[in-house]
Amino acid sequence: MTSSREPKTNYSRRFLGLGLFIIVLFGGYSAGWFWFAGRSEEAVRAAIADFNGNGIAADCVNPTIRGFPFRIGLTCDRVEYEDSRQRISVSAGNLRTVAQIYQPSRALVELDGPLRVTAPDLPQLQFDWELMHASARLANPVPQRLSVEARKLTGQASFSDGVPMSLFAAENIQTHLRPNGADLDLAATFDGLAVDPAALQGRKLPPLDGSADTSLANGVEMVAKSDLRLRGRAGTIRSMTLTTGGSAGVSVSGPWSVAGDGLIDADLTVKVLDPRKLSAILSEAIPEERERIEAALSGLAALGDAPTLPLKIARGKATLGFIPLGMVPAIAR
């Protein structure tokens, strides 16, 4: 007669064996995670040390790898950069990065303000925000996608007398970058941008909204080589719009290029949105030019609610329709 205790014993052994396997597996995984985290912290410190020198001083204060068990990311109490040769310094608050263990190529980054910038011939600039975060899908030589968003962004400047002056405040700013073959696509939007009258010598503008959709030819190679010069580059503005409340404003589109000597060539189309309302806004902001503004935009209003004009730039010489606008300064580099 077969004992009923034998199946129970086999079942118990299997359950115990599975439990031991899970414990060993998790223990090994934990040991591997913390080993990798320790090596990563050492690598960060070594990379910072290698980067510093020749007048460059950068730091990720107290670099720590966190996220156990299923995430991994770097945190810094503060980030700092200084170039003593160019007399430029940048600093910001806590930096946090994170990626899923099972999807390390997708990274999230958050940065706390304020961001302080000092540079020659400029006041000290300070930017702060309610939230700033970025997401990236990493790839070689450039990310497949990179997005940055800032909410409740403000800016101010401090001059030699030490009194800070408000520059602007914006509800939301977003930028998105992705490769498109050899080219680089860049899109950006901002909402509720209020420029402080003090920054405009007392002139008042209503809150502004804007968007841009552009492409930079051979931009992937440019970023991969860290060659940020615009001379010898070309691109296309699919759409670039600046409006007040989404109604009155200006939109520009068309191809452009920069010659080796920095002079610009472009074949653009300018669309004026609601010329009558735009005339009233600009006349209030620039009262000394009221007559010219009203004369120019009243003529455009006769062409409709959204008339278009060709804007051509040939070797830096700009012409709007048949009206010469003068020379556009050469791009410095």
Structure description:
By secondary structure, the protein is α+β, with helices and mostly antiparallel strands. It has a domain at 229-333. Helix content is 23%, strand content 47%. It is built from four helices and 20 strands. It has a 20-stranded antiparallel beta sheet that branches. Strand 18 and strand 19 form a beta hairpin.
Q: What fraction, in percent, of the residue positions are helical?
A: 10-25%
How much is the radius of gyration in Å?
A: 28 Å
Which structural class is indicated by helix and strand composition? alpha+beta
Low-confidence stretches: none
Structure summary, number of beta strands: 20
Q: Roughly how many Å apart are the termini?
A: 94 Å
- Measured by DSSP, the beta-strand proportion falls in over 45%
Please count the helical segments: 4
Largest sheet: 20 strands, antiparallel
User: What is the string of helix and strand elements?
Assistant: HEEEEEEEEEEEEEEHEEEHHEEE
Which overall shape is indicated by the principal axes computed on the Cα atoms? Answer: elongated
Nearest-integer average pLDDT: 89
Please name the defining characteristics of this protein.
20-stranded antiparallel beta sheet, single chain, alpha+beta, 333 residues, 4 helices, 23% helix
Sum this structure up briefly.
The protein is α+β, with helices and mostly antiparallel strands. Helices cover 23% and strands 47% of the residues.
Strand-helix topology:
Blueprint: H1 5-51, E1 56-61, E2 64-66, E3 71-76, E4 78-83, E5 88-92, E6 95-100, E7 103-111, E8 115-118, E9 124-128, E10 131-137, E11 145-158, E12 164-180, E13 183-195, E14 208-216, H2 219-224, E15 234-244, E16 248-258, E17 264-273, H3 275-285, H4 290-301, E18 308-314, E19 317-320, E20 323-327
Antiparallel strand pairs: 1-4, 2-3, 3-6, 4-5, 5-8, 6-7, 7-10, 8-9, 9-11, 10-11, 11-12, 12-13, 13-14, 14-15, 15-16, 16-17, 17-18, 18-19, 19-20
Helix pairs in contact: 3-4
